[in-house]
Amino acid sequence: MVHTSLDVVDEKISAMGKALVDQRELYLGLLYPTEDYKVYGYVTNSKVKFVMVVDSSNPALRDNEIRSMFRKLHNSYTDVMCNPFYNPGDRIQSRAFDSMVTSMMIQVC
Amino acid sequence: MDAPEEPLPPVIYTMENKPIVTCAGDQNLFTSIYPTLSQQLPREPMEWRRSYGRAPKMIHLESNFVQFKEELLPKEGNKALLTFPFLHIYWTECCDTEVYKATVKDDLTKWQNVLKAHSSVDWLIVVVENDAKKKNKTNILPRTSIVDKIRNDFCNKQSDRCVVLTDPLKDSSRTQESWNTFLTKLRTLLLMSFTKNLGKFEDDMRTLREKRTEPGWSFCEYFMVQEELAFVFEMLQQFEDALVQYDELDALFSQYVVNFGAGDGANWLTFFCQPVKSWNGLILRKPIDMEKRELIQRQEATLLDLRSYLFARQCTLLLFLQRPWEVAQRALELLHSCVQELKLLEVSVPPGALDCWVFLSCLEVLQRIEGCCDRAQMDSNIAHTVGLWSYATEKLKALGYLCGLVSEKGPDSEDLNRTVDLLAGLGAERPETANTAQSPYKKLKEALSSVEAFEKHYLDLSHATIEMYTSIGRIRSAKFVGKDLAEFYMRKKSPQKAESYLQGALKNYLAEGWALPITHTRKQLAECQKHLGQIENYLQTSSLLAGDHHLTEEERTYFCQEILNFASQHTDSPGHKVVLPMHSFAHLRDLRFTPANAVVHVGGVLSVEITVCSQMPIPVRVEQITISVHFSVEKNSYRKTAEWLTKHKTSNGIINFPAETLPFPASQNSLPALELYEMFERSPSDNSLNTTGIICKNVHMLLRRQESGAALDSPSGVALEDGPHVLQCGDVTLAPGANTVTFRTQAKEPGTYTLRQLCASAGPVCFVLPHLYPLAQYDVYSQEPQLHVEPLADSLLAGIPQKVKFTVTTGHYTVKNGDSLQLSNVEAMPVLCHAENRAVIYSNAREKASEASLRVQSSDKVTSISLPAAPAYHVIEFELEVLSLPSAPATAGESSALGVTEAQRKHKDTPKAGHCMATTDHKVRRGWDCSACGGGLRSSCLF
């Protein structure tokens, strides 16, 4: 049911988004701590939201690591969006994106 | 100074602590000056420059003046800072050289020696000059004053260590001035002493910290040392700095725990790993929890004790700093991290103990914050506290489940035992809260005492949390809590209360397209509806779940079976039908007409083949699949001819239905596309471009409010249509995946048939697809017999026999053996007879059906062709040779007709259905309808 908590995250992003005057900082930081997970958020300039859920017992993940992971994710996402054959809103089926995400996961675990 | 003579009481760690300044010398003098001094000292701030690049601070100094005693001076190695005398002052009002030499000098020397022995360099000698006294003795002391003498004797290079205070108790400008100088001096010296001693202390502390890798190092000892520093900062009202000390300790400890988890254990840490025996929550009402501090000092504290103490101190300081919201935020972090740390350190914790601790702590923090903020402040900062509320709710829920308080039957003996154990771990209520009616301790105890009390407390908390979430616009969180609440209600067997929460959450998820939460909520909802006996809703939810790919095969099969069971059980109850939307059950992929152009003549057979993808996990036997058809007659009869229909319908007979986006009709998808237009505005005078831009023409469509009332999968929209025209197919078993179902129908009345609804029924359950889109239609036509006469060449040349193709379309008429076609000839163009003529009969779909020979009998006026037998809606084609005689006049206007054809039927009942027309370039005779075109022989004949 982590998904449900993500729901809350979205809300928080929108709440933060309003307050965020300086739009250059895309990383939203820790949004929603729970006992077992930490939820981090990132929002692009076009208000695309990335959410990452991390096991809170994993001490290797500090703010900076999360931030760089989000950057990577964002770059990869931008690449996907630039694909002229991709319809915005569709499920992302790019192999490059997939492998990037997988590599990120492996690196963390 | 209230009681300078009293022995120093044991250190009390309260806010009342002040830096200690000792006084020696004339005590009576000091006592007289003390009130003014203590009042004046803190009046003006002093800039404190700090080492290590820390920003200078303005501080108001206060001091605790005590009588000088040798015991007060710290022994070597004593690290206590709070009891450390920062400054030593010697007071004297001696103005007589003799007296000075006799007593004061000795006394001073003694004092100085003691100080030197303890290597204390922070001292000050104050000489109080009294005009009244001085006047009496002016003649006695002309040259050097006592002050000079003292300076000479004691302050060899530090003349600033001796200050004169003139007439301290008078109210004159001179007095004022001397006070000011004195106070400034005093403050400066105090600060110097602080800087020096604290700096030294900090250095020592750092050295101690650097030793932390050594085996004998103890965190508790270090904790005490650094806390001492924190106390001093707190004493100096430097809460920020004090907080930093605690934060450092906090971080250091956390790091150790993390390292321990990574396998790098410190010896002292194992001590914190002892099993948790008490879980009485945070105590934030006292500035310092001495009990816990002593435990730490004795190195007996558990992890929870240490964390509690540390947090209590941080909380106190944060509240001094007027940052209650940070307390709330830190509290949540602390609670989470404590739970994690206990897990990491593998500390054994009785089940539920942590839940108790967290619950108590949450409430304690909340009450503490409430205690120092007013209502309005609380309300505007809900966002900070709501996390704690929801955490407390969660924990209470967990406790309730653990102790068997959330069931119909109530707790059993095992549950009760557990409850007793948990309550025992709470210990006795603390005296600070004993008189508070709503203390966390009392709440928890009461909540665990009985099923009813638990329900009350849990509901209170839940509702409060939901309300708070809603008020700050975190609807999703509110829904999530609502789901928990629904689960609680389900356990309590009151599904009617649960339903609304589930529906609310589901609506929210559906609107945003969150697949997994939708599935989960639907599962709960299905159970709820089952209990409520809402058959229709239950079946609908079941069908959605059975087709849900996020569920396991077994679960889907279970829900599918539920529907089938219902269908088979209620076969005998007539009339009542449960209508469910089709999209959950199956998805119509494509539809194929045979014949491909979807045009069929009356009496012809049309088959419709649909491909349906069943979403069900198991094969489902459906008694009947029907497509209801809407029938309409078009007025224009021409459009119903085969020709027109064949010409205008070019489709290959397959209609593909787009893959439905269901079950996620995400709101964005249903929005119409942007209609953007360029806009140029030119100035009227010189036609130069003024503005340009893009206009969105359908803003009103895009920006209108989403109708919140439109339920996304309400069954209300589905109505079973009962038309007279229905395509049916009985007893079909739909396997999972693609299935092909074929409908056959014999066309009856001519007209256009539009396929409207697809309905699969099994017993009383109908799955209905209310609208087929894109539109699928087929046409039925009825055609009169027709004759086409067409020359093979572009134009007929006179004098040469040439071939002309005759095409007879039979239409609805069946040509029998012996039927003949009669053509009345024009003199100028007789039909030449040959012995052998063959006619080919084609079916309506231009497939060759048969071949037959023709008999042509030609007379002067009439050519009679006996047609071969052909069924209705077939085409007979044959070619005849004609010869146009050159002598024939070819004037436009009035001319002789080439031929008149007339089918003479042997049957009398067949009327002359029509006329035939054939023209070359001539005009038509006998008023026939004509479609003459220039050039060639183009005729269309109507019987």
TrEMBL record, chain A:
InterPro entries: Longin-like_dom_sf, Sedlin, TRAPPC2L. This is Trafficking protein particle complex subunit 2-like protein. PANTHER family: TRAFFICKING PROTEIN PARTICLE COMPLEX SUBUNIT 2. GO terms for biological process: endoplasmic reticulum to Golgi vesicle-mediated transport. It is found in: Cytoplasm, Perinuclear region. Keywords: ER-Golgi transport, Transport. Its main location: cytoplasm. Pfam families: Sedlin_N (PF04628). CDD domains: TRAPPC2L. Belongs to the TRAPP small subunits family. Sedlin subfamily. One of its GO terms (cellular component) is perinuclear region of cytoplasm. It comes from Phyllostomus discolor.
Automatic annotation (TrEMBL), chain B:
It comes from Phyllostomus discolor (pale spear-nosed bat). PANTHER family: EPILEPSY HOLOPROSENCEPHALY CANDIDATE 1/TMEM1, TRAFFICKING PROTEIN PARTICLE COMPLEX SUBUNIT 10. Residues 791-884 form the TRAPPC10 Ig-like domain. One of its GO terms (biological process) is intra-Golgi vesicle-mediated transport. Residues 16-328 form the TRAPPC10/Trs130 N-terminal domain. Coiled coil: none annotated. Pfam families: Ig_TRAPPC10 (PF23604), TRAPPC10_1st (PF23036). This is Trafficking protein particle complex subunit 10. GO terms for cellular component: cytosol; TRAPPII protein complex.
